[in-house]
Amino acid sequence: MKDLIAKRYIKALVNATSRKEVEEIAELLGKLSSANAISKFGEILGSPYVEKSKKIDFVLNNILGGQCSAKFVNFIKILAEHKRLDLFGELYAELTSYLSSLNKEYVAHLIANESYDESILKEIESKFSKKLGVNLSLKQQIVSDVGIKLVVEDLGVEVSFSQEKFMNDLKNHILKAF
């Protein structure tokens, strides 16, 4: 639910700002997103006993040091007015996703049961980048499942091979032959 709300705010923000301003705002939201991981920060923003104006002042001056554009200040005021100051993580994720789509740069996750050599990863990265027409950055995750999966979430692409699925498909094919 928070993701959908964040998408609407980011869509409005992007429509009202230039690309350079969006990149600056992404940096500021990154700072706020990392500050959101601190429990005291969340308690202050979520407290019903702290006034909205003090929350806004806390975010803009104490956390960001007052280095904000007028548009970003208004953005924070709107978030505070609608009690959405807990969305910094989702807003940052959505804005970085938007910027990566503008630059055609995406992160792909290679999920496998073994670690692959850096040269193999670079080759996979270059071939899929060429195939999809974008710049991919490949991250590797090691899991216990037998098989391999390549996922690019922002593009909605998933390529996988599972030994278990292969065996089931082979069994079904053989049974259909009879």
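[next item in queue]
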Amino acid sequence: MTDRRDFLKQSIVGAALLGASPLMAITNADVLKPKTQPATNPFQLGMAGFTFVNFDLETTLKTLKRLGVHYLCIKDFHLPLNANEEQIKAFHAKCAEYEVTGYAVGPIYMKTEAEVDRGFEYARRVGVKLIVGVPNYELLPYVDEKVKEYDFYYAIHLHGPDIKTYPDATDAWEHTKDLDKRLGMCLDIGHDLRNGCDPVKDLKKYHTRVFDMHIKDVTDSTKAGHAIELGRGKIDFPALVKMMRKVNYTGKCSLEYEKDMKDPFLGIAESIGYFKAICDYV
């Protein structure tokens, strides 16, 4: 197969034989022209707070601003579950300073009704209407009641083969399909793939209950798969973005970067740049 370098060499030789300037031949070569114009991009790119588990809020927000990311899913190590009004006000002020909005809270694990109550009250005080949660299966009827009471959306986070509860999108769908329509899932595409599923097909099948997405890439579609920079693993991101457009996905797309978590910054930047490029040209 002719590669880019051979193509350019042939263009120069051909131009010389025709009496044209080699520079003009290169300038006019189709290979140097964008094949498509940037697509209309409705997706709101965010960051899953867990990405910055080893860093304080200031470092997190500085990183997001440099990357042009404006949404953060809030984890309790940045804003405690028992935060008072003063702490919450200060948190939002700090986010605003860096042009970042906390759009959801979680993931929050809930093993008792009291923990469900605490999670919903926390979201109310923080001022968001989306909880990313992991409730025990037997608590789902109670979560359903709370969703109706608070008029919140509740997105169950998938965890692949590592945790028995909610390993993939199908499991989350089966446990919520008969409950309130505001009770659905956070489609973690990496964990979905690691459980042997196809996140693109699952988005198509379950999109009416996908309220949030954790964007990541993994090395394999088995439990052995581990986190890697976007575009280097097994996730078919062009197909994913096309499906997001097809189903008119309107939730956030939050990068959850889990490689090199004590020094993740280069990997985060590479991943954000890759995802933005895919969204612009697919």
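[queue empty]
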